[in-house]
Design goal:
Blueprint (H helix, E strand, L loop, with lengths): L5 H5 L3 H24 L3 H20 L7 H23 L2 H47 L1
Helix pairs in contact: 2-3, 2-5, 3-4, 4-5
């Protein structure tokens, strides 16, 4: 797990913070699964609660103006949270595995979107600069 100072965290974009939340959620889920296997149920409980807290924060950060995808993500986050409550109660590593798979899929898509967005940003900035230069020339 990557340790980030508060100062470094403030320099991150909201999108990068979301990526870090996915990573932290996965780490907590893996640690909870291991704790259950080792019959350390107190640690498993703590890790599952942390993972659930992260899912709650991810859900709270959704931009519902973005459209149906936000509603769908909210439903998936709620489903995963419910599965983690069940996993915690039943000490069920299969339920944890199910949530790990879902988080990995969402995280992978998120990272791909970040990568695509970063590749597009220089082009968009250049287009805006060109548009500004063209209008500035005609205003003289």
């Amino acid at each position: 797990m990557t340790l980030i100072t508060k100062e470094a965290l403030h320099k991150k974009s909201p999108q990068e913070i979301t990526a870090l939340l996915y990573e932290a959620c996965l780490n907590n889920l893996e640690e909870a699964k291991k704790a259950i296997q080792e019959k350390d149920y107190i640690l498993a409980n703590e890790k599952l609660q942390k993972a659930n807290d992260i899912l709650e924060r991810l859900g709270a950060g959704l931009n519902y103006e973005a459209g149906i995808i936000a509603d769908q993500l909210d439903a998936v986050y709620n489903y995963m949270a419910d599965r983690l409550v069940q996993a915690n109660y039943n000490k069920d590593t299969n339920a944890i595995d199910e949530v790990i798979t879902l988080v990995k899929q969402i995280s992978s898509a998120w990272h791909q979107a970040l990568k695509n967005n970063k590749n597009l940003q220089p082009k968009v900035v250049k287009q805006k600069a060109n548009a500004y230069e063209q209008t500035a020339i005609y205003d003289n």
